Amino acid sequence: MIPSVLPTYNRAPLSFVKGEGAWLIEADGRRFLDLGAGIAVNALGHAHPALVAALTEQAGNLWHVSNLYQIPQQQKLADLLVEHTFADTVFFTNSGTESCELAVKMARKYWYDKGQPDKTRIVAFEGSFHGRSSAGIAAAGSEKMTKGFGPLLPGFTHLRWGDHDALQAIDFTDVAAILIEPVQGEGGIRPLPDQCLKGLRKLCDDNDVLLILDEVQCGMGRTGRLFAHEWAGITPDIMMVAKGIGGGFPLGAVLATEDAASGMTAGTHGSTYGGNPLACAVGCAVMEHVADPEFLSGVNARAGLFRQRLEGLVAAHPDIFEGVRGMGFMLGLKCRAMNTDVVKAGYDAQVITVPAADNVVRILPPLNLTEDEIAEAIDRLGKAATALEQATA
Ligand SMILES: Cc1ncc(COP(=O)(O)O)c(C=O)c1O
């Protein structure tokens, strides 16, 4: 009999009743160190007092009015995002997937309105992840996500990650945009080198193509800058955001330059819930923390320490781990053992990590993870690795 919850996930046998900072607690009181943060979502950890205050205060006043009316919390969050990024304008969604939908629509509408309606193709990359909607799976293109769901949304081309020759060889006549994650998340924590991001920006400029960055996973302070592309010193035309921006409350956004957004006039897009008062009240509280340069320099310092300690862990367990990759608190342990076994052994050691493609275990902790918690994380990951070594000895 089919379970009452549609079984599209292989869920771990864990169930948490409470969260406190970087800790998740089961009903029996067992405490797990959360290095997954709900897949890079709980940017400030669980039950952060500022977020709880923002949410509860707003909950006592007004939850939802729809976008037919002014929403001051939405206006404030848009102003904050515009102040701190390349963007001139913001549309709020409820998820990364919805941000992908709008990013694709915006790019196509841009060229349509410029009198080039045939410029519709989106060039994307193998190993990427942009969500599970029809546009999201067509953009990512992998068989795992698309098989059985055809006919797929047309107009996407996929290049191998890092295949510069294929990029240079593209005929850009009908290309609306290049869509890429500056750091692939689901694909196995693969950062795009700064040089490549710079090269992509130039390629787009030279060929009249928009650059869409998917910063759903790598944005909102995760790499130690507010957005990952800042490391390369470039800016996109359109950017997808979600996950960390709501700190655990469902919220996403599409940020764009005035020019790139020029086709999106009244009536061209909408969302009943997107940018509702509750989500945006929390989003403002998240932004006030994460956009603070002092907060970000703390992320860099602690993430550097964590990485160093992870290198030591890898050296101490060469049969289990192969190396560390990633940026800031978006780290990946490339495994020699099965990554899913490492994650499971972590559950026994009461530490939460998340598997990714390419046999990688993702480490995406709350951005305010402390030095003591880093030491605890290394200890628990070490216990997990030792248990796996003993099991295979
Ligand atoms: C890079 C990236 N884009 C888009 C998405 C889709 O976001 P959501 O699951 O919020 O729809 C994800 C989710 O993991 C992601 O990592």
Automatic annotation (TrEMBL):
GO terms for cellular component: cytoplasm. GO terms for biological process: L-arginine biosynthetic process. InterPro entries: AcOrn/SuccOrn_fam, Aminotrans_3, Aminotrans_3_PPA_site, Class-III_PLP-dep_AT, PyrdxlP-dep_Trfase, PyrdxlP-dep_Trfase_major, PyrdxlP-dep_Trfase_small. Belongs to the class-III pyridoxal-phosphate-dependent aminotransferase family. ArgD subfamily. Pathway: Amino-acid biosynthesis; L-arginine biosynthesis; N(2)-acetyl-L-ornithine from L-glutamate: step 4/4. Pyridoxal 5'-phosphate binds at G96, T97, F129, D214, E215, V216, Q217, T272. The modification N6-(pyridoxal phosphate)lysine is found at K243. It is found in: Cytoplasm. Keywords: Amino-acid biosynthesis, Aminotransferase, Arginine biosynthesis, Cytoplasm, Pyridoxal phosphate, Transferase. N(2)-acetyl-L-ornithine binds at R132, S271. Its EC number is 2.6.1.11. The gene is argD. It is an enzyme of class 2 (transferase). Binds 1 pyridoxal phosphate per subunit. May also have succinyldiaminopimelate aminotransferase activity, thus carrying out the corresponding step in lysine biosynthesis. This is Acetylornithine aminotransferase. Homodimer. It comes from Citreimonas salinaria. It comes from the Bacteria. GO terms for molecular function: identical protein binding; N2-acetyl-L-ornithine:2-oxoglutarate 5-aminotransferase activity; pyridoxal phosphate binding. Pfam families: Aminotran_3 (PF00202). Its cofactor is pyridoxal 5'-phosphate. NCBIfam families: argD, PRK01278.1. It catalyses: N(2)-acetyl-L-ornithine + 2-oxoglutarate = N-acetyl-L-glutamate 5-semialdehyde + L-glutamate.
